[in-house]
Amino acid sequence: MRIVILLCAIFYIATASEFAPNSACKECHPLIYDEYMSSQHSKASIFKDEIHAAVWSKHPKNIKLKAYGCAHCHTPAASNLKELTAPNNGVVPDVNNTTHTDGISCAYCHRIKSISLGAKRNKNILSADPKSFFGDSNISKTTPFHTVIVRDVNSSSSDICMGCHSHKKNKFKFNVCITTMPKSSDTKSCVSCHMPKQSRESNQTARFHGFAGINSYAPMLEEHVELGFEKIKDGFSIVITNKTPHALSLHPLRVMQLRVSVDNKALKSVNFLKLIGSDGKPTPPWLAKEVVLNSVIQADESRVVEFTYDLSSKSKIDVVLGYYLVNPKALKGLGLEQSENVKRFRIFKEQSFKL
Ligand code: HEC
Ligand code: HEC
Ligand code: HEC
Ligand code: HEC
Ligand code: HEC
After folding, report:
1. Fewer C-beta neighbours within 10 Å, C or N terminus of the chain?
2. Looking at residue 1, what is its pLDDT?
3. CA 128 / ligand 3 centre spacing (Å)
4. Ligand 4 centre from 47 Cα, in Å?
């Protein structure tokens, strides 16, 4: 009897920190699985995200310490997370280890119970049982593979995201990335915009697991940013209204660009970006101590951009709002200047106005 209990205890300790691989969900949740596989969460490792890999290849924690701290958010289900994030022990990301290539895995995300707030970064608090998953059900269920457990009524659905997305500080205690939390009065949460409810063939409604973002499914987010046109003295203005609870283009590598042409004649484009650095000059994130320039469009802001132009009574104004994933000025330093996928300008929203 004692031996059995002891064995159970050892078994529990051995499995408690383990996460079922993504492939284990495929058979019973095939549509969600396919969507998820196309998402950036499934591609968050250095093996599937060339931008992440490029930044990691230059990072002092790689060059000097071989300590892949990024794993806390980019591959949090790693079977050897502790060793992987510790310095100079010979453990580095391994392409043959599926827990290193799975990215932000299904089982990891569905075990997030709550978050604990931290100065450097937040942390996710997980369900103790590796086969108990939170869903949006308000009753517990048992399935042949796992149980479904009920989330605390006080937790907001955005908590599931803010363990990783809230902020990240470097060694100078400077915040390199920040995502502001929706206010409690907001009717929209991270989940409602980035995982909208979908009608599926099976007639079930379920949350979209492609995680609409800048890398993929950007058109699904277009409705949350409005473009407007106003005629003013000596020209016109374009108004960009951000109806989201966070700044547009959250990552410091991005550049958002407004391209306007009148009767097919292109005017000078306008960039919205956040440059981080020190002594007034841009630096890589690990050396940054200050915001050098910040022209990104903030949460709930309406940005008015004025153009001096002699419009005719029949002028047609074409407006394009789009992105570069990586600031074109940083491409070379990161060795990404050959990648068409990274280099290309991505159209987020287009609209034409006629006088
Ligand atoms: C053997 C089949 C099977 C496998 C494998 C499986 N599930 Fe499920 N899952 C189910 C069933 C059945 C339900 C319950 C559907 C219902 O009654 O609403 C469910 C429900 C869920 C729910 C909750 C839905 C809700 O009501 O909110 C989540 C979350 C979930 N599964 C996640 C996963 C994850 C993550 C994996 C892979 C690690 C996985 N499942 C693997 C069968 C399975
Ligand atoms: C606190 C969690 C956290 C940690 C730790 C973390 N990241 Fe990230 N990272 C994120 C999140 C969240 C995003 C998505 C942000 C966005 O798209 O605006 C991201 C996105 C990125 C991107 C942009 C990827 C793309 O395809 O556009 C790069 C590059 C990146 N991280 C590099 C790193 C590196 C290198 C490390 C380790 C030195 C690291 N991150 C550690 C949370 C983290
Ligand atoms: C375990 C950490 C983690 C959690 C939890 C998490 N994310 Fe992410 N998320 C990331 C990282 C890391 C990236 C960047 C991956 C990359 O590009 O390498 C990312 C990228 C994204 C992107 C950008 C996608 C794109 O196409 O550019 C969106 C949108 C996003 N997450 C939304 C969410 C939402 C919504 C939630 C909550 C339901 C959530 N995330 C929970 C770590 C996390
Ligand atoms: C970044 C976090 C994240 C990842 C990764 C993720 N999910 Fe979800 N999933 C959610 C959220 C958020 C919901 C909405 C319900 C809730 O609030 O928990 C959800 C809902 C579900 C549901 C309930 C039905 C529905 O669609 O509303 C199932 C089943 C499910 N996920 C399975 C999976 C499977 C299988 C995978 C991997 C193939 C996966 N999830 C990956 C966050 C995630
Ligand atoms: C009202 C809808 C809405 C809500 C709510 C919302 N977002 Fe977004 N999000 C957007 C839109 C639109 C974009 C694309 C434009 C941009 O770059 O911000 C976006 C972009 C993103 C990106 C990609 C940014 C980049 O530079 O790669 C991430 C990551 C993200 N959101 C995470 C979150 C998280 C986490 C929450 C909850 C705290 C959240 N969003 C809440 C609409 C929303």
Report:
1. N
2. 42
3. 23
4. 23
